[in-house]
């Protein structure tokens, strides 16, 4: 009975989302339910809650700032034409469709996602995939499969939340997650190879398998040598550099113009600044260096140079205002989910759920977090809801808390590809000019398009891509659950 009461906030979250209400509503309803459950059966001394909240508040603020500045940076780079310019340059550097696809799926999409988050990577990568010759639905699926570095997306706030709620070190959780993330990457590699025609021509799989291996090794190495926040950026950059070097050796011309260099300046500021600050913070013990090494600082710096370095004209204040308005629902939902996770962990609700599920072993851990990834639509939200529960489950069974939380973190992150709104967005981006327009449009032969037929086709494409993403998530989550059972 106690475990069921503790699980009520989660059940309320799922119910509200199933009814089609926004994530903000779901998070708010769950938080209110959790507060009521805490007052009924999980009363905790105010001093304990205050101390726990004081420790958690800086992380909450950091995550919200990462999301805000990441969204502003993405909007600025889109408005200035920097994203389009860099995308065209990378497309021109591709020597074949499979090589270009591997570059986008395991390089461009993870890089954009690691810098900005929110699934922005698919909006950058899918148009390039379309230009490479992929049809709308396969291009959408390929773009979604590029979200294999989500544990480090937006410089890793989701992993930071999991580490905070479970008492683990951020870098140790990042390294452990990187090891087990080999399974989601392997699933993505196989799916991308099939979509690139590897069944007809096995040679098409070569650049795909190479890119997947470089991404996994690059992210793992960056976690070990540098730290978790920039690991996704460095891992995906390693893919881009390796494939561009391979293209150059094959005779591709990789000439960049002054405008191309200007388009890359915000990325260079973010990457180099964060790495330098991390190095200084590791050498010297000073509070100001810890602040300087915080991801929001360098995201803000990248935003500040984005307009002066823009390859084209842009109304910076207007773009920032639009980005801030778009951030509000995302930030509110994320903040509420984080508060929900903190409250459930601090009051012992997560421990009660974990103890109840422990009779089933550790296998439900990754499944629970994968469900959270689909429902919440973010790794941060999934970990806020379930990381504490999974840690309690590991403690009840005597398993490794680090191992089980890492497996769950990887499962939750990869499950983001099957979030229905993200799938719909990917298909819409993939459809591009083929998306339905109100009233229809005149075609080249003077005929009128049928918006209803276009919408029906778009809906069918969403269903096909949704099914494919769910199958990919299952293909990764089931082995992760087996691995969890062996811990």
Automatic annotation (TrEMBL):
Signal peptide range: none
InterPro entries on file: Lactate_perm (IPR003804)
Transmembrane feature ranges: 56-77, 139-158, 178-198, 205-225, 231-249, 261-284, 296-314, 326-345, 351-376, 468-486
Main location per the UniProt record: membrane
Membrane topology summary: Multi-pass membrane protein
Keywords, alphabetical: Cell membrane, Membrane, Transmembrane, Transmembrane helix, Transport
Subcellular localization: Cell membrane
Job description of the protein: Uptake of L-lactate across the membrane. Can also transport D-lactate and glycolate.
PANTHER family: GLYCOLATE PERMEASE GLCA-RELATED, L-LACTATE PERMEASE
Record family assignment: Belongs to the lactate permease family.
Protein name, as recorded: L-lactate permease
Source species of the chain: Brevibacterium pityocampae
